[in-house]
Specification:
The chain has ten helices and 15 strands. By secondary structure, it is an alpha/beta fold. This is Gfo/Idh/MocA family oxidoreductase.
Amino acid sequence: MSQAEPLRVGVVGLGAMGAEHVLALSEHVPGAQVVAVHDVDAHRAGEVAASVGARVAGSAEGLVADADVDAVVVASPDRTHAPLTLACLATGKPVLCEKPLGVSVAETAQVVAAEEAAGRRLVTVGFMRRFDPGYLELREAVLGGRVGEPVLVHCVHRNASPHPDATTEGVVGNSMVHELDILPWLTGLPVTGIEVRSPRSEGLREPQLAVVELGRVLATVEVSLSVRYGYDVRCEVVGTEGAVSLRPPARLDVARDGRAGVVVAADFRERFAEAYRAELAAWVAAAGRGGATGASAEDGHRATVVAAAGIESLSSGRRVAVPPG
């Protein structure tokens, strides 16, 4: 592909995340052109395609194989992530796969092995927090030693309401997995153990609280799916010489009906809009050179390994050691 030509992108899955990616690629990422989309809902696929002048692919596999598609975004249901990423690797196409990379450790290990066999990096996993300005500042402060050696990390991850398809295991594997990726990235230390508990023993077991061990550092992770008030993500790192907290993006302060305060983001798309755009821009630039950037297949695999240990802990009620990478 000539540097003067746009990267021709195909997007599989047009739910909230996939549709947002199509919009961002079309309106905010120079050098990209969405040329094909696919969704199991043909009507929705037609609407999204028409909005950006793309065509509708008859199947996800057909979109991946299309010679007129240079690179692929996978934003379809979790169970399709690994198979479609493997299909992209088989065709030699760069792929941005939304988290999680797969639904099992065996699946994600297969993706890592397939990429290694391909001989070059092609997989980017959609851990967009790595591109968020606040998280980038936080990481720079921690790894730069501004608060001494990190000893404790506190993470909060709250959603206003759960997805209709939410499961107890998915609280760890689909939601908490963001923190399970970001903790090693923030501290430079691998996860060595995890214990996950919930105050509920039946139905959808949330909220959940995890204690994550990263060698000499301990982290707490709260994941709540139904706090009602909005989408709220926080992080604080306590070091031997001070503490540093994630600075939230600027929010409107509203005074009305006898109350005043900062408006909380409605969902992840609003809170991390800048991060998603930065992630896509970096991915398009790397894919245009035939490569990848951001979280790797190995990063996605490690997050799945830790999530599997967390799910085991929640089920058994015990701490579970995480095998080294």
